[in-house]
Amino acid sequence: MIAQQIINAVSLGGVYALLALGLAIVFSIVGLINFAHGELMTLTGYVLLAALIAGVPFPAAVLLAVICAAVGAVAMERLAFRPMRGASVTSLLLTSFAVSGLLKVIFQNGVSARPQAVAIPNWMTGAFSIGDFTIGVGPAISIVVSIVALIALEFFLKRTVTGTAMRAAAEDFDVVRLMGIPANRIIATAFLLSGLLAGLAAMLWVASRASVDPLMGFTPVLKAFIAAVVGGLGSLPGAVAGGFLLGVIEVLLQATLPAAIAPYRDAIVLSGVIAVLLIRPQGLIPAVRVQRS
Amino acid sequence: MRHIRKRSALLTAISAITVATAAPAFAEEIIIGAATAQTGGLAPYDQPALAGLRMAIDELNAKGGLAGKYKVNLIIKDTRSDTAQTATVTQELIDAGAKIMITPCDADPSISAGQLTQPLGIPSLTLCGSAPVLTQAVGDVMFGTYPADNLQATAVADFAIAEGKRKVFLLTSPDATYVANLPEYFGKVFEKKGGKIVGRGTFTMNQPDFSAEITNIKGLAEQPDLIMTAAYEPDFPAFIQQLRGAGINIPVYGADAIGTPTIKALGKLVDGVVYTAAGYPEAGSKLEAFNAAFAKHAGHAPESTYEVNGYEIGLILDEAVKTAGSDDPKAIRDAIANLKDFEGITGKITYAGTDRMPLRPVVLMRYEDGEPKYVETVVPAAADVPAP
């Protein structure tokens, strides 16, 4: 039982971590909390749905959907955020809300207000047994994908020139530009990575929901925002820690609270968040440089 | 300034949305306000129901309007599935002169609309809101139209007992009246008839991680032979996906909100799921004829029984105005409240002697191989239906 709940917690935490990381990468470079991150997930879901309806095999459809999320993120930067570069944090924030709202309406009117069922292959809804307890294939995939994505990102940031430049840009963007690294490239890469992470998270999210709807991005981006703040806004390890912490708290409370108190779960979780921020105002693992907000 | 702009926007909206056909010059006009969700979580329910109502009004207007006399001007405003926004648009509709109000498919926004229409005595009908507390929470102007939650739950519970099910797990969410109460009504009837509730679980709507709850179900000392829930989209697909994913094959039963194309499209995942509907189009029935007429009118077949329910609201209003003999809201209200054995499309509808939640038949359906299959039509005994 307890082992099972731990697997549930890690699985949910992994998805939150991927999402929070996507927000944190962009924030660390351009100081923007991209609330349209959730709509990248929605986009991914609809691309997957369209590809499956068109008869594309499942693995290819997943690949296509994740690529579309990355392309969508770069396009978002190019169309909406680049013209706003250098604007105040508030303007950037409002721009991201505008993009988010616009995309929601496009999905609602262009596709349908009704959720659309996504045919998840049978093998993904199965379960396998190890010793005493059964592990769902879905949660197992979720955990593996999260861990692989986190390791790959770590490798990219530590071992490549662009990655190093991005880490440097998070600390002091002006100096990086003086070193001759083009700002556009750094920023575009940041959005590309955040799009990839949103795409992966969306696949895990959709696989456990079996449907996509125009508003599906709202809850996850809210969770990611909370996770990123708890972890330390702009800090990548912080976002991962925050994501896992949020997932673990949510699942463990849901598992252990008596039925009468269970409806207050979210209130308890958010009180916990406030408590963490009272003790560590900069988050669990603060960003190297305090952000220019 | 702002006020003026708002008013001109309102006029534009009225002229754009007015359902109008060529009107005889002498006809009087009656404004029906529809505060319904065109966007957001309730839209998949409100829209089909509204489509049915519009069809009824188009047909009635072609014959001169309600009671052949009062041409209907239907003004539709979007509530965005938001309770506060519902109150705002209801007020706008009242200001526009609505004498009858149509409210969304859920208790909470319908109550917020009813709080505005009750003091003015404007009869208000929810499209498919089915919580029996809904009419009591507002007062004598509020009417349900769809089979009430306690009625539906009784029908499903009777069926489960007859099948030999004895142990149930109830999954609820405190976030909406329907999702919170319907399984509890089921539980009351189920226990009274010899069943046992072996566990209860809750979830947060639109936040579909059910893993912890599912692990709790797995860990129950006494395993249920049935899970009863009123969860709907997008929570229901997520729940059943994760439940089956965890290797649990206990049957899941629900109510009317899962009789939708989205749930049907889940295919094998929802095999064996029992749910309710307001009617079933047997060969030669009035409902079959309605479905054909609707398909011709709307260009697509009805998605559910919400369409016919919306259509029946039009018929009920027509009958009520006939009885009232005027367009006075109070007289219309009294006429609806005294309706008895009115022949609708799905069967007889009675309001007289009820708390303004109609007595009408409930249809049980079951998904098999990705198709909805008819099980039976029942009218639960009034004594079995638990009090709201």
From TrEMBL, chain A:
Q: Is ATP-binding included in the keywords of this UniProt record?
A: no
Transmembrane feature ranges? 12-33, 45-75, 87-107, 133-157, 186-208
Which CDD domains does the protein's record reference?
TM_PBP1_LivH_like
Keywords, alphabetical: Amino-acid transport, Cell inner membrane, Cell membrane, Membrane, Transmembrane, Transmembrane helix, Transport
The lineage's top-level taxon is: Bacteria
**How does this chain sit within the bilayer?**
Multi-pass membrane protein
Where primarily located?
membrane
User: Where is the protein found, in the record's own terms?
Assistant: Cell membrane
The record ties this protein, via InterPro entries, to: ABC_transp_permease, BCAA_transport_permease
Similarity annotation: Belongs to the binding-protein-dependent transport system permease family. LivHM subfamily.
The name under which this protein is listed is Branched-chain amino acid ABC transporter permease
Automatic annotation (TrEMBL), chain B:
The record ties this protein, via CDD domains, to: PBP1_ABC_LivK_ligand_binding-like
Protein name in the entry: ABC transporter substrate-binding protein
Similarity comment: Belongs to the leucine-binding protein family.
**Transport among keywords:** yes
Signal peptide as annotated in the record:
1-22
Q: Does the keyword field hold Disulfide bond?
A: no
Q: Which InterPro entries does the protein's record reference? A: BCAA_transport (IPR051010), Leu-bd (IPR028081), Peripla_BP_I (IPR028082)
Q: Residue ranges of the Leucine-binding protein domain?
A: 30-370
Looking up SUPFAM superfamilies in the UniProt record yields: Periplasmic binding protein-like I
Kindly state which keywords UniProt assigns to this record, in alphabetical order: Amino-acid transport, Signal, Transport
Q: Which superkingdom?
A: Bacteria
